[in-house]
Specification:
- The mean pLDDT is 97.
- The radius of gyration is 18 Å and the shape is globular.
- Helices cover 36% and strands 35% of the residues.
- With 219 residues, the chain is of the alpha+beta class.
- It is built from six helices and nine strands; from the N terminus they run βαββααββαββααββ.
Length: 219
């Protein structure tokens, strides 16, 4: 996956960005059909460092490589239009994505929670993933409608102390609120202490509104 933190240039707004994303969708529908993308805007976050974020995903590494080659040869015009609206030079991170409770189809508009996590001493990413799988199934059994993944930075993260991110997505705030109730008052927090805490420490999440730019299934 691909994550870019972007700031609007002076005088530019989301309306200007929407015009460029419409052109990008047409480009991707023609040249990059396996790519999915979302625009993220902070809802609950302290000093996120950007106005909006671009998050993109490919089905696998091969698709990523082909996509990047096409973008650097065929997408330069649209890239220049993006650069007239937003500056994304401050943050560009690539990460692997492992499903925890993931839907078969590409998620559409919704809410994304990103938890920055650090492994406990002596623990591994494999152990953390196994713990999140177990906790995800525990919350699903309680009725949670969250979709979730484990994102592990592989390029561009610099000297960040974050080992991985736990990403949880909801289609509606009412679904998020119901899962919050499960976590706080129906035993979810205790299960996390037993399952996740022995392996990793995860901060409280930053919460973003996610607007789908395009889904891989569009074409």
């Amino acid at each position: 996956m691909d994550f870019r933190g972007c700031n609007f240039l002076d005088g530019k707004t989301m309306a200007d960005l929407d015009k460029v994303t419409d052109k990008f969708r047409a480009y991707a529908n023609k040249n990059d059909t396996g790519y999915s993308a979302w625009i993220l805007t902070p809802e609950y976050a302290t000093n996120p460092g950007f106005d909006v974020a671009w998050m993109g995903a490919w089905p696998d590494g091969v698709a990523f490589g082909v996509s990047m080659e096409k973008w650097r040869s065929l997408g330069t015009g649209i890239a220049a239009e993006f650069a007239q609206v937003v500056d994304c030079s401050g943050m560009h991170v690539a990460a692997t994505s492992l499903p925890i409770n993931a839907p078969e189809a590409t998620p559409q508009d919704g809410i994304l929670l990103l938890y920055a996590c650090k492994l406990n001493q002596g623990k591994t990413l494999d152990e953390a993933y196994a713990a999140h799988l177990k906790f995800g199934q525990t919350m699903k059994a309680k009725g949670s409608l969250s979709n979730s993944w484990m994102f592990t930075p592989i390029a561009g993260a610099g000297d960040s102390e974050v080992d991985y991110y736990h990403a949880a997505a909801f289609y509606r705030y009412s679904d998020l609120g119901d899962t919050m109730e499960m976590f706080v008052n129906r035993g979810g927090a205790g299960e996390r202490v037993k399952i996740i805490d022995p392996v990793a420490s995860c901060q409280t999440p930053d919460v973003f509104n996610a607007l789908s730019v395009r889904a891989a299934e569009e074409v």
